[in-house]
Design a protein that fits this description.
single chain, mainly alpha, 2 domains, 4 helices, elongated
């Protein structure tokens, strides 16, 4: 982790301070980390609702289960695994879409 030993002081009006803290709170960050990201030129997005990380974990859990079934089915030659491979690919596509929409820092 970076050692931050340079201090920067800044004066804001009450309205500016309120806007800054409101935006940082919406992003789920401290005001200091919000300002650091803004200075670095990074996009600061609103934090996802509480159910998005749960959704991502559930999608990953389902993908893991499909992968386990796929391995067992292909090793035993029990069934045609093409549909399972398609389901796994679809699951991974959904996981990727969610991660891209909400960012990976929430995972």
């Amino acid at each position: 982790m970076a050692v931050r030993n340079c201090r920067f002081e800044m004066r804001l009006t009450k309205d500016e301070y309120y806007d800054l803290t409101k935006k940082a709170r919406k992003a789920g960050m401290t005001t200091a980390s919000f300002v650091r990201m803004a200075v670095a030129g990074k996009d600061v997005m609103e934090a996802p609702s509480a159910d998005v990380p749960l959704l991502i974990r559930e999608v990953r859990r389902v993908g893991s289960n499909i992968n386990q079934i796929l391995k067992i089915a292909s090793s035993r030659g029990v069934m045609d695994v093409t549909e399972l491979r398609k389901a796994l690919a679809d699951n991974r596509a959904v996981e990727k879409m969610i991660s891209e929409a909400y960012g990976t820092e929430w995972l």
